[in-house]
Amino acid sequence: MSKRTFLLLGSMMLLLLLFLEVTTVAFLKTSQQTGTPQSIERSQYNKKKKGKAKENSMSAESSVKANQAKSTTAKKDEPAQETMKPAYTKSVAITFDDGPNAATTPQLLQILKEKKVHASFFVLGDKIEKHPDITKKAIENGNEIGSHTFDHQDLSKLSVAEITAEITKADEEIRKSIGERPAYVRPPYGSITSEGARIINRPIIEWSVDSQDWKTRNPELIVRQVQETVYDGAIILFHDIYEETVAAIPQIIDYLHSQGYQLLTVGELLDHPTAAENYYGRNDHRPA
To answer: Cα(120)–Cα(94) distance, rounded to whole angstroms?
Structure first.
């Protein structure tokens, strides 16, 4: 080989090496900027994975919020829980005689209203004449009004004409106050004859438990007397003209409720009787 040919081959090899070096450097720069196909694929996969995770996180958060909203709506839609009412297994009627009294009867009516209890008031005609609004208020509060005659005379000692006057005059005053004749009559002292019962011609309401408030005039003794003598189906006698009775009534009501007694009007306890007989309690009535 000539010297000239040798130099030509060497020059060509140098040019080839230079071309390869330039091409390699350019390739490496391009790879760093754009990444290889494998790196591009890996990058896209990571992006998709992060996006999916974010999407799942947002979905989970939306689900929690939706469940919370549903729970709140359900609570709003739930009916308010009713207060448990006591289970009564027994019942009595509480009754008050000799009113209305301007000083004590309104206090008693307020106590009964607050305790959600109804009672029967056997009123005197001459007192209703002076205080018709009190008796009207008693009816408006859900209580019951009966007659205790006009001015508290012993009917067993009166003539037919006098008994008739006592009953009709009381009926008239009661009708003026509450708009109707009373369904029941309680004779003063519980005293009545067969002739008097015939004239009255309505159920005659006596009692079977006497609180003796008229006798003791002591709140503690009144409470004790009721506690010691009350029984299922009894009609209890009080008088709404005594401050001591008004003072004792809240404790008596609470005691009776605690013992399983429901407090009713006479009509409710006796199932609204109509026969002209003497009634002492539930299932206890006798010919006059």
So the answer is: 7
* Interatomic CA distance for residues 141 and 144, integer angstroms: 9
CB 213 within 8 A of CB 244: yes
Q: Which of 118, 131, 148, 239 is catalytic?
A: 239
Q: Are 230 and 209 in contact (CB under 8 A)?
A: yes
* Cα gap 181→167, rounded to integer Å: 11
- Is-catalytic flag, 152? no
- List pLDDT tens digits, range 134-164: 999 999 999 999 999 999 999 999 999 999 9
Helices (H), the chain: 3-34, 37-77, 105-115, 125-130, 132-140, 160-178, 194-200, 213-216, 219-229, 243-258, 266-269
Q: Report the distance separating Cα 266 and Cα 278, nearest Å.
A: 13
pTM: 0.71
pLDDT band at 63, cuts 50/70/90?
very low
Q: Are the CB atoms for 213 and 245 separated by under 8 Å?
A: yes
97 belongs to the catalytic site: yes
152-189 burial, b if ≥16 CB within 10 A, otherwise e?
A: bbebeebeeeebeebbebbbebbeebbeeebbbbbbbe
Instruction: Give me the catalytic one of 97, 98, 171, 240.
Output: 97
Residue type, 270: L
